[in-house]
Write a structure and sequence with these properties.
By secondary structure, this protein is an alpha/beta fold. The radius of gyration is 19 Å and the shape is globular. A hairpin with a 2-residue loop joins β1 and β2. The strands form two sheets. It has a six-stranded mixed β-sheet, with helices on both faces. Strands 1, 2, 3, 5 and 6 form a five-stranded antiparallel β-sheet that branches. Helices cover 35% and strands 24% of the residues. The protein has one domain: 3-Layer(aba) Sandwich (Rossmann fold), CATH 3.40.50.
Length: 248
């Protein structure tokens, strides 16, 4: 069963077409990668799916319902989460406070002057447990802005998961990371997304082939093909358009 579909999706910027008749199908429970050269329209596709842009034409269907044009906060409420290519944490707040905000959002809690968040024992305990899972317990009192790049990205991935989404979209989660940081990020994504559906944009093909169950190749705003990692490796049109000669 598909948890996400785009149907004949188009998008343009002032008449410059970026997406052409994109029909993406993401199955519930799978890790699905979207790859393609720079300018292929990958981030634009994410922005349309997650409500940042309204499509010029076509539909976005999530869990069987037409959500075309829904706002990002509305999509979050029905189970869609997202991380961004550029980190989007609250850098002046501590790591602990960042994660706690995500948990409060998940629980639909509201802060007011008559409720001291620091005394919300269950939420604070859940926050500590999340920090342990992402190996940031030692940095819980650090402002997010002083974390190393790799740990900052880990925090952002965790924030995308903090609302307990059914579907999470990760935009270049390992961009700019060292090899060690990338390995840690891949393991983090595996742990945090167990039982979830994931759509990931990623340029690092080692990451893509190690994580993805299926891969969609976007080329000049159109879907070139979709298949398993093995099928994508062997597809001559994909090699010509993007991958080159990959060895198994």
């Amino acid at each position: 069963m598909n948890i996400l579909e785009t149907r004949e999706l188009y998008h343009d910027f002032n008449g410059l077409a970026v997406l052409y008749a994109v029909n993406l199908e993401v199955r519930a429970g799978e890790r699905h990668a979207v790859i393609g050269p720079n300018g292929a329209g990958k981030t634009t596709l994410f922005n349309v799916i997650t409500g940042t842009y309204r499509p010029s034409k076509g539909q976005v269907v999530f869990k069987g319902k037409d959500v075309t044009g829904a706002k990002p906060y509305q999509l979050m409420r029905v189970g869609m989460g997202r991380s961004f290519q550029i980190t989007s944490t609250f850098d002046r707040m501590t790591t602990f406070q960042n994660i706690r905000l995500g948990i409060l959002s998940k629980k639909k809690a509201r802060f007011n002057l008559f409720r001291q968040v620091d005394r919300m024992g269950a939420i604070n305990q859940e926050t500590l447990e999340v920090l342990k899972r992402i190996n940031l317990e030692g940095e819980k009192d650090y402002p997010a802005g002083v974390l190393s790049y790799g740990k900052h990205r880990s925090l952002e991935i965790s924030l995308a998961m903090a609302t307990d989404p059914d579907l999470v979209l990760l935009d270049e989660p390992t961009a700019g990371m060292s090899k060690d940081e990338t390995r840690n990020a891949v393991e983090l994504i595996r742990r945090l997304t167990q039982g979830k559906t994931v759509v990931i944009i990623e340029h690092d093909m080692e990451v893509v082939f190690s994580l993805a169950d299926r891969i969609t190749v976007l080329h000049y705003g159109q879907i070139l093909t979709t298949g398993t990692p093995a099928e994508i490796r062997q597809d001559q049109a994909v090699k010509d358009a993007y991958l080159g000669d990959l060895e198994d």
